[in-house]
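Quick one:
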Amino acid sequence: MADRSSLPLGWEVCVVFRFFLLDQNKGKYLIVEDALEKEKCFHETKFEWGFDEFIHLREFNDACNGYLVEDTCVFGAEVFVTKETSSGKGQRFSMITNAHSSKHVWKIENFSKLNAGSYDSEVFEAGRQKWKIIFYPKRADNLSLYLKLAEVTPASNVLAEYTLRILDQVNAKHISKKIRKHSFTASSPDWGWTNFVLSSDFHNPASGYLVKDVCLVDAEVTVYGIPGPM
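Output:
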């Protein structure tokens, strides 16, 4: 969202969008969009959405693919606004002094028997807020991990920094990804990675991620702000 200065207090704009990258050799576009959660809501504390892994750098730089030709590339975006709202009431964060992190480890047993699309961890507490980890074991060729605010109200607005990890039980070389200062709200209660780890890497015995049909996932969460009055 490029220009927010003229928008009213409590604004929220929900959109469906996708990105394009032109193959200049064939005149065709690579199209990237979130097929599972198409609508994204922009608001006062969340005005950027996108993809952590849009395209692999090797694929982008390979001249045969036509994405980078004579040091030039062509990107595009298509945006459909689905909803615009304004509460008319301002809201700001009450920042938490001396914020400290809390860690929760989730032991997932009998992994080979998991057949549902997603699984939720037990609820845990961090920064006086309740959270849970959401795990998608079979999403295309990847495993997905998200952190979710477990108790959500219309006024929910929690600013948090967090790290999700899949623990390497053999080599102690954990795979981890970190989000700095994300705002969890009623319209956006969860956030994470669709492509957290390749299924082939996860199931590789040498990786140590799956040992005796057990996987260990942990979340480290630091809450920096909660709703406060204007």
